[in-house]
Amino acid sequence: MQVSITVNGKSFTHDVEARDLLVFYLRDTLRLTGTHVGCDTSSCGACTVHLDGQAVKSCTVLTCQADGRSVTTIEGMANGDNLHPLQEGFREEHGLQCGFCTPGMIMVAADLLERNPNPSEHEIREALEGNYCRCTGYHNIIRAIQYAASHAVAA
Amino acid sequence: MGDTQYIGKSVKRVEDKRFITGQGRYTDDIQLPGMVYAHIVRSPYAHAKINSFDIASAQSAPGVIAIFTGDDIKKAGMGGVPCGWQLHFKNGDPMVEPPHPLLIASGDTAKHVGDGVAVVIADTRANARDAADLIYVDYEVFDAVTAAADAVKPGAPLVHESAPSNICFDWEIGNPKAEVDAAMSTAHHITKINYRNQRLAPNAIEPRCAIGDYDGANDRYTLYTTSQNPHLTRLLMCAFVLGLPENKVRVVAPDVGGGFGSKIYHYIVSVHLVSK
Question: In this complex, do B258 and A46 lie within 8 Å of one another by their Cβ atoms?
Answer without folding.
Answer: no
